[in-house]
Design goal:
This protein has ten helices and twelve strands. By secondary structure, it is α/β, with parallel strands linked by helices. The chain has two domains: 173 residues, 2-Layer Sandwich (Nucleotidyltransferase, domain 5); 168 residues, ATPase, nucleotide binding domain (Nucleotidyltransferase, domain 5). A hairpin with a 3-residue loop joins strand 4 and strand 5. The chain is globular. The N terminus is likely disordered.
Length: 370
């Protein structure tokens, strides 16, 4: 089954154009993707015949580290500084002329309002200047489809675990825009729990990678932390109680915690969260009868989670797919790719209406009829 667009190289132009909509022939397309939903600025060029031509990413982690988290105003200002230089970098490396772009896809939401507005305004400004259509892309759809950029990619349908700093959801994915929510977090997202627990251990920001590295040196038998909703008989998650359990362990140390004890706590935390995520994924596959599992989002880069899922897949005979590590976090490639798939499915999705808006809150289920 061919998942992505199967189009040739640039031949011909648009079939017809109305005031706000442009309709394409089934022809090759070159899509510019712009991602600016939070603290990464991503630019990419995706060719529907040749694949990803180039991408560039700037992370703001170093800037936000001093504040212990993302400062929205600083994030927006940094996106403004980075977008155009990154665009030029991608154009130069790929040997592409700006006016050869067929359409511009940008992250419309969800995310930080100010950060989203930067990407939307750049996309619309370029579209107006070049007379190219634009397309607002759902950030989470970009993550859901990002494993299809890998060399080994799944066919539809599949179960997807979308797990990041802001989201933890299990979805049934039957095609582009055909998403059914199976379960989601009732409070903290998994990535949020990673960051908050890391902060309790004095590991700084971002905490997810730091607490996972520290956990490698911990003994799994020293502390036992709860597995929230592990036996809830549904596919929902809850991680606030796990974070509270970490806080309780930390407070029980009346003096400063030594580094080895921090490693033991980190190991207990990581094991607990990985056990829950793995068990829920297995349950989702059982309930749907599917044999393909896709992991998307920043926490999908976690090596302990990958090891647990790979082990479960071997035992229970299902297949698990991951994005390339460079595409686990926010990036422009997933936005350009999602835009290309959207245009293949619905050519009229691209518009010449440059009066843009963004959706800081945007339920993924709304895409079903998009």
């Amino acid at each position: 089954m061919v998942v992505g667009p199967t189009l040739g190289r640039h031949q011909g132009n648009t079939l017809q154009s109305s005031k706000n909509r442009t309709t394409f022939h089934a022809r090759p397309m070159l899509i510019l993707g712009i991602e600016s939903s939070c603290d990464e600025t991503g630019i990419a060029l995706y060719d529907s015949q040749r694949g990803l031509l180039g991408h560039a990413l700037h992370s703001q982690v170093a800037m936000h580290e001093a504040y212990g988290g993302v400062v929205p105003e600083l994030a927006s200002r940094d996106h403004i500084r980075r977008v155009l230089p990154l665009l030029q970098q991608v154009l130069d490396k790929s040997g592409t002329a700006l006016n050869s772009i067929d359409a511009i896809a940008y992250t419309k939401g969800p995310g930080l309002a100010g950060a989203l507005l930067v990407g939307a305004s750049i996309a619309c400004g370029l579209g107006l200047a070049l007379d190219k259509p634009i397309l607002g892309v759902h950030h989470l759809e970009g993550h859901l489809l990002s494993p299809l950029l890998a060399a080994e990619r799944p066919d539809f349908p599949f179960v997807a675990l979308l797990v990041s700093g802001g989201h933890t959801q299990l979805m049934r994915v039957d095609g582009v825009g055909r998403y059914t929510l199976l379960g989601e977090t009732m409070d903290d997202a998994a990535g949020e729990a990673f960051d908050k627990s890391a902060k309790l251990l004095g590991l700084g920001y971002p905490g997810g990678p730091a607490i996972s590295r520290l956990a490698e040196f911990g003994d799994p038998h020293v502390y036992k932390l709860p597995r929230p909703m592990l036996h809830s008989k549904n596919l929902d998650f809850s991680f606030s109680g796990l974070k509270t359990a970490v806080l309780t362990v930390v407070k029980n140390h009346r003096t400063n915690i030594c580094e080895q004890d921090k490693a033991h706590i980190a190991r207990a935390f990581v094991d607990a969260i990985v056990d829950v995520l793995t068990a829920k994924c297995v349950d989702a596959l059982k309930q749907t009868g599917l044999k393909r599992l896709v992991i998307a989002g920043g926490v999908g880069a976690n090596q302990q989670l990958r090891a647990a899922l790979n082990n479960a897949a071997q035992k229970r005979r299902f297949r698990v797919y991951y994005p390339e590590l460079e595409f686990c976090t926010d990036n422009g490639a997933m936005i350009a790719f999602a835009g290309a798939l959207r245009l293949e499915q619905n050519p009229s999705a691209a518009t010449h209406d440059y009066a843009f808006s963004v959706r800081p809150r945007w339920p993924l289920e709304e895409l079903r009829n998009a």
